[in-house]
Design a protein that fits this description.
Largest sheet: 7 strands, parallel
CATH architecture: 3-Layer(aba) Sandwich
CATH superfamily: NAD(P)-binding Rossmann-like Domain
Shape: globular
Distance between the termini: 31 Å
Structural class: alpha/beta
Radius of gyration: 18 Å
Helix content: 40-55%
CATH class: Alpha Beta
CATH topology: Rossmann fold
Number of helices: 10
Strand order of the largest sheet: 3-2-1-4-5-6-9
Order of helices and strands: EHEHEHEHEHEEHHEHEHH
Number of domains: 1
Length: about 270
């Protein structure tokens, strides 16, 4: 349920204010630049104010955009960021929950504290910010919530136990939100990235909570962040709600999973992807 596509109205980006978290690098940076190019006003958020300012300077009509740095895992900072966004922009039409952290550790090597840290960033921070913006979206007659899940949230793979669980959880939460608010003008889209050339694997948490510090081969061979953003902008403009963005291998795996999960997991057990 929740994976149908509604008929999309023409999107006039010049009328939109889009809040993007995790905007200082990677796919968040690429989405920021892509939507700004379309004419949208962007609220850029992340923890590093200087990096956000650099991304803002790369955007079309850079003075038009707003930088609001905060830690998405801090509820008080999130509320202050939301208040600042409304005060400066007056409205939020779309929220793209992109901030997140990945994982590269076997389940038996991962502490519970690290699993909770991943869930806090990849699940609770996203739902918290969504609940903050939704009342105003409902009052203004509509809006769009975009969740960044992952192909790992559709397929359980090695070294990503807690990460996959968090991304699966945000996918199901988004489906429920869509079902609950569909008739109140709220659109909900979930994006499932495959391997994208960003620092996600470098920053991924190992079993003790330290960063992996190196890029996976699969990640380095993935789509560029710019290609990812191009596909996402096109899909969201068309009103798509269930968007898988990745290479042929990831897309094939999701299709095999729908047809024969046991067959897929036999292949996963034999894979060397970390």
């Amino acid at each position: 349920m929740g994976e149908t596509k509604r008929i999309a109205m023409k999107t006039n980006y010049k009328d939109l204010t889009i809040w993007i978290t995790g905007a200082s690098s990677g796919i968040g940076e690429a989405l920021t630049i892509a939507f700004a190019k379309r004419g949208a006003r962007i609220i850029l958020s992340g923890r590093d104010k200087e990096k956000l300012a650099i991304v803002k300077s790369r955007c079309k009509n850079s003075k038009h955009h707003i930088v609001i740095p905060f830690d998405v895992t801090d509820a008080e900072q999130a509320k202050e960021a939301y208040d600042s966004a409304i005060a400066q922009a007056g409205k939020i039409n779309w929220l793209i929950n992109n901030a997140g952290i990945s994982q590269r550790a076997l389940i038996m090597d991962t502490t519970e504290d690290v699993e909770r840290q991943i869930m806090e960033i990849d699940y609770f921070a996203q739902t918290r910010l969504s609940r903050l913006v939704l009342p105003d979206m409902l009052a203004q007659g509509g809006g769009k919530i975009v969740m960044i899940s992952s192909v790992a949230g559709l397929l359980g793979t090695q070294y990503r136990g807690a990460y996959g669980a968090a991304k699966a959880a945000i996918h199901m939460w988004a489906n429920s939100l869509r079902a609950e608010l569909y008739d109140q003008g709220i659109e909900v889209a979930t994006i499932f990235p495959g391997f994208i050339q960003t620092n996600v694997s470098i920053n991924a948490l190992t079993g003790d909570g330290s960063a992996q510090g190196s890029m996976d081969e699969a990640t380095s061979n993935g789509l560029t962040a710019a290609d990812f953003a191009k596909q996402v902008v096109k899909a969201l403009t068309k009103g798509e709600e269930y968007i898988i963005v990745g290479g042929k291998q990831e897309k094939l795996a999701t299709r095999v999973n729908r047809l024969s999960p046991p067959k897929l997991y036999k292949l996963i057990r034999k894979s060397q992807v970390k």
